[in-house]
Amino acid sequence: MKNIRLLILVMALATGASAQNGYTNLFNGKDLTGWKILAGKAEYRVENGGITGTAVLNSGNTFLVTEREYGDFILELDVKTESDQTNSGIQLRSHYNPLGHEGKGLVYGKQCEIDPSDRAWSGGVYDEGRRDWLYPMELNAKAKTAWKNGGFNHIKVECMGYTTKTWINGVATAYVVDTLDKTGFIGLQVHAINDAGQAGKKIFFKNVRIKTANLKPQPFAKGVYVVNLEKNMLSKYEKQGGWKLLFDGKSSAGWRSATSMAFPTKGWEVKNGMLSVLGSAGGEAANGGDIITNKQFNAFDISFEFRMAKGANSGLKYFVTLSEKTTGSAIGLEYQVLDDAVHPDAKLGRDGDRTLASLYDLIPAKKQSRFVHPIGAWNTGRVIVYPNNHVEHYLNGVKVLEYDRGSKAYRDLVAISKYKVWKDFGEAPQGHILLQDHGFDVNYRNVKIKEL
Q1: How many whole angstroms separate alpha carbon 377 and alpha carbon 374?
Q2: What are phi and psi of 239, to 5 degrees?
Q3: Residues of the chain with CATH 2.60.120.560
Q4: Does 8 or 409 have the greater pLDDT score?
Q5: Surface-to-core class of residue 281, CB atoms within 10 Å of its CB (0-12 exposed, 13-18 middle, 19+ buried)
Q6: Which band of pLDDT confidence, cut at 50, 70 and 90, is reported for residue 286?
């Protein structure tokens, strides 16, 4: 019996097994056994019982990855950056294409971001080498202060089924539901640098451990926005938080024409999980016409995915009352959906206030080109109307504008816009949500709302 116990102890020490809470050490504290370096030229070495990554000038992104792949797991580790400009990240269920980056090798997959810069997106989820940002930390801005420069920070990641959740120093940061990558390797990143002043800067990793058995979802703070990439589905967490689908993916239930109590018999289509307006030579409300929700809303958080054909024009309007008399589209505050590069409306108005994600004809969206997905790809729009009438527009997870309904600044903008002819435009206490028929092919899906 003594010999058996001794053998078990020796085996545990040899594999780095940790008896605490079912975790296993991924790093033995002595060498890089079980790991390999991919892609760039940055250096990794073992120092003081941890792993140190050192940035190398003009190297691409470099990754130290596990030789083994993992499916469901809870990962924990401690990380410190030497510079507040040295970006890093933890790869999750990731993959490698040796032919990528012109033969230099491409690591791709979801990454828990480490961002010590003023942008402060640590804990966000980035899709390395593939889809770019999935969860910018603008979506959970109150958690941006969780990362502390100058010392080690504790990172925790849960990957279970389609769900990825992240924590920084115990603060819930990002929540993503994504159908890609059920398995893959885990990796530690040293980011590419082109600044000689950042060459030689180090990133320190220690206490890297993983749990793969007897997993239970970890409690997550309430009220955190979820990026859910399942088609027209809500997670249990979203449902508990008050989110509801405005489009079920199968029918027009909950929607009707803006000019009658029935859903349009032409011009709109429900097919393949999409609610689509069909092109008709660019006429405004000239085919099927606009559609509106049966229900009216006052304070809410609405999120929707949209995909445009080349040159398309459409929009999501809110606080639509139908009290204004118009010959074209119904009147309301509008989140503009537009192909800025082709449609002429992008050059009209003032200072770009008719471009994609703008508050149409009132406030231009301030957006970076990298956060605008190309024509034919899906983009995610979001509008939050708080109970105090503060309003925010987001595009692909990044806030692009904000304003206060009814404020002097807002009314001054209305006074010089096309809406000046309507008394108290956009200030109704409640209204319908509208999807606009502007005569172009535009698909909508994953339309969800939470009343505030």
Answers
A1: 6
A2: -60, -40
A3: 17-211, 232-451
A4: 409
A5: exposed
A6: low
* Contact indicator for 177, 437 with CB cutoff of 8 Å: no
8 Å CB contact between 19 and 12: yes
Q: Could you give the CA distance from residue 364 to residue 282 in angstroms, rounded to a whole number? A: 23
CATH of domain 232-451: 2.60.120.560
In this structure, what token pair is assigned to residue 91? 């790869």
pLDDT band at 12 (very low <50, low <70, confident <90, very high): very low
Helix (H, G, I), strand (E, B) or coil at 137: helix
Choose which CATH entry (2.40.50.140, 2.60.120.560, 2.60.40.10, 3.40.50.300) describes domain 17-211.
2.60.120.560
Q: Kindly report the number of other CB atoms within 10 A of residue 382's CB atom.
A: 24
> What are 137-175's pLDDT values in tens digits?
999 999 999 999 999 999 999 999 999 999 999 999 999
CA distance 260 to 275: 18
**Encoded tokens for 6:** 């001794």
pTM over 0.90: yes
| Whole-number pLDDT of residue 11 | 42
